[in-house]
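Lab notebook, bench 4. We co-purified these components, and the gel suggests they stay together. Before we commit to crystallization screens, I want a quick structural picture of the whole thing.
Request: model the full complex, all chains together.
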Amino acid sequence: MSTNTQDLVAFRLTGKRPAQDSDDASAVVANSADSSGLCPVLFAGYSDLTSLRYDFPVILINGPHHSAPMRSLTSIMNDIIDSLAPKGSEGEFDRKQLLELERQIRSYAASGDKGTLSKFWKKAQADLIRGTTSSERKALKACLDQARTLVDVDGEVIDCNEYTCSKITEHLWDFEVTAKAIRFRKRVGALILRLERILEADFQISGDAQDPANLKGAVGDALASSFDFKALSDLLKGSDTHDVLPVTRKERIENSLKALKQQRFFATSYLDTDERAADEAGLKVHKYIFNTCTKAHDAFLDRLPEMVELIKAIAIAELEIVNGYKDGFDDDFFLGFDQTSLMPEDLELFPSYLAVCCGQPWSTTEKGRIIETLSSGLPIKIMVQTDDILPPSSFGAGPFSWGLSGAQLAGLAVGLGSAFVLQSTASNLYQLRSELQAGLAAPGSALFSLFSGAGAQTSEKQLAGTNRNGSYITAAAAMEARAFPTFVFNHEAGSDLAARFSLLNNPHSRSDWTSYSLDCEDDDLQRTTLDFAFTIADFMATDERYRNHFVKVVKSDWVSDMVSVGEYLATSSGDMSDKIPYVLMINEAGEASRYVVDDTVIRATKRARDIWHDLQELGGINNSHARKRLEEEYEVWEAKKQDELESLRVEMAAAAPVSVQDVNAPSAMSETLAPAVRQATDADAGTAMPPPQGAELKETAPEPQVQNDDPWIETVRCTTCNECTDLNNQIFAYDDNMQAYVANPDGGPFRDIVVAAENCQVAIIHPGKPRNSNEPGLPDLIKRAELFM
Amino acid sequence: MMVTTYSSVTERLLQSTEEHHKIDDFKRHIPRWCTGCGNGGILTAMQKLCRDENLPRENTVFVSGIGCSSRFPHYMNAYGFHGLHGRALPVAEGIKMARPDLHVFVNTGDGDCCSIGAAHWIHAIRYNMDMTVILHDNNIYGLTKNQASPTSPIGLSTNTTPRGSILEPLNPLLVTLGIQNASFVAQTVDWIPELMYDILSKAYHHKGLSFIRVLQRCPEFVPDMFQAWMDEPVTTRLLTHENGLSVSPALSRTYTNQEVHDPSNMDRAREIASLKDQVPVGILYRNDEIPCYEDVREPDRLQTSGGVRDVLEAEFDNFTIWPEN
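Here is the predicted assembly.
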């Protein structure tokens, strides 16, 4: 082993940098200060995100009436381009301008500008027009003006940064709750309306309505002088009055109305001026978004009594409007109705609570409350944002234990099995918007564990002079490197993990790592391809805090024992102690170099891979139980086959030499076929065979066997024309389906039956034979009846 | 002492709506249609449907115009509106707009719908509000004693066409299929009760306006109008499909002339509707994707008494001349 190799192996094992041991630093190891501006080779193509068309920025669409609560700028522009710019050279000009406008808006968002799509559009359009010649200006303006008319949505434009997770979650929650509010207002508003109409009707038939003042009010001022309202009142009061509502029912309705109007769970602005009781009473509508789970939990518990009262009021109102409330019977039920009576479907009426937990660390109480909430099934949605998955406090102090704060929580929640769980990075949230919406809409609690990528200690120099979006790149890299994999666990999606758990959007999810190829130039300016796996070691190399765990090796000193980290970890057998794992990095000039990693990083990478394997198993990939079972089954099958082969060999040996007759001798195979052969033989011999499967299905119900002597009707064909029943309702009657049948053949003369048969337009009456041989005119009647036999 | 037998509010509310009806619950008055009238079969099918779907009578309404068939609401024990001639559909639309929770059925005749009410018919199809419209088509004005209707065939002698009708009859199926937003078009005959019920049931479950033309016998004025079709079952073409009707084996033995017709095929539906030598029975066309007007134009505010009063006051103020003081 050369001196250089020894130094690198020593670094790998101990983390001790050779250059630090001697004033004469090893030539193979560059000073760590040279590492500024470095990034993994995977990032090579992403130096300027504003020129790339990807998921960000996104527009959080205003208003509840759009089918999609958010859209990416790219998808909106794609729609416009499809409508406005024909494919080919004809649409080239428009397409180019629209793509430039998109790039311009993306650059505003990336630079931190805040605004809506309409504002950014206006600004970008002005900037583009300003930069054109006068000859192009008119065409550009016409193109962009026309494109603007095709944009039917507006809303805040957000890029991927530290606020992305909270803004998207809150926006989608608001979208969900707004839809719920519309349903609530519709239902409760209708109840209020109908209860008031009951009370109004009750008033109109009461004595109070017949007072002179009320009668005058009903007529109006214009004709008031024409009436003597007192006399009219006396007259009306003297007449019969209808029954008014019982006092208890009236009180119940009034109490329900009061509770419905004074509810504080949703705004009541849907009601008309005379029904804004809650607002007039100065009641404030509840808030549902909190910055800790503890606050959300406490708010939910505080409001439970109000919820109980509102649910009771709604139920009573529903019963009252159909006059279905049963005194006594329902009194008992509603008297005992309290918090313990609430069912999950009752809670679905109300908004869910949203805890937006950003910034760590959390207190022990908060951690406990999160777990408690996720176990309880309460309608509390918890968004936990992780900004840093490589916290320095746990790194370096003994075993490498980073990444626990975010990913561990989601894993724990999956283990609870009682909550919707989504784990994702901010860069992937647009792709997972439907899953996020599903979690917000699902009954019960939910955890959204999201990595923003905004807290990573990325070198300022790394991003200096570039339009590289640090948050987006870091978040995306975390998912690519399996440091923060994406998954969804929907505990109500089905009965097994296959239905409940999904490894959504993780690239190359069946592999340990994501693998890529990159075309580049070698030292001789020839095209070459770099194949590499993107591991957590590569991801860690992006973090300045851990640069001491990487040392650069110049190309002239590369040794044959150097292997990539992915390759190093993939080798499960053999002695790897003399191998030197490295990651590929590029500097600001785009030059790729190998950086050797120490054992601490290798241990961390292994651990993250093991966690990823666990997730793969949950997602049905490389399931160890299934694999083990398969191996066992294969062994059993193999042993059985071997036994069979052995038996055949013995049999063959005993039978040799084989005669022609022996070929027809029964064998194991022919025994197997024997029943089928026998069956076929029986069939050939004309033996009765069982009918083919399903044959009985084709058989139809036998026709009713009717004695020709009795009159009968094909009842199912009766058209209810009343001909026969009008003629003789003793003989003919209708069944439960209002179709005629012969109810009593002795209910009248044979003549009536014959006449009914003759009159029946669908000819379904069959008279049969006369039952009374003494009836006059029988020969003629029998002859006429024969036509309908 | 009464004992509660339910464990949640939802269960209690479900119990309050659990009312099982019998066919007699939907009967009201003795129909005053002529003996042998085809309307009886339609009435029976409708009463069976109401029973089988367990429709709450207080949430079910029948609307009609003028004519023999328009007496229908009188014989259904539910809410009814016996309206003006040709105006059944706008009344029904108003009811549906104000109370989208109601089950709305419209009974209209060939004179009521295809003549004086033709404009309303066209726009009702276009509005596609969720209701079931039954066109009782007997090819004659019966209530006014034998005048030619828009669907009377050429040569039919009536009080108004003593030398025989000279105009080509209007084909209600073709007209309906030609209107934008037609979402359910079917035809049946009153003398095959099984299919009458099946089509009525399919129409009721369709979300949108279901238009059913029922060829209905009038034994009083045109007793032989459909006799040939009744006597020769082969002239009746049954339209079957997995998204349409399925015919029982017993009926298939009688009606052997069957065609598998996909109800989403509008072109074929129009060809079938144009048949002259055969009577198609089944669902000619259905499209469940067409939006209903009441859903598209759902008001965002409740029509409270106070709100209605305010709007009316404001409207009246536009025409009020205030005396100067």
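The domain at 20-298 of chain B is CATH 3.40.50.970 (Rossmann fold). Worth comparing against the SEC data before the next meeting. Chain B touches chain A through 45 residues (CB under 8 Å).
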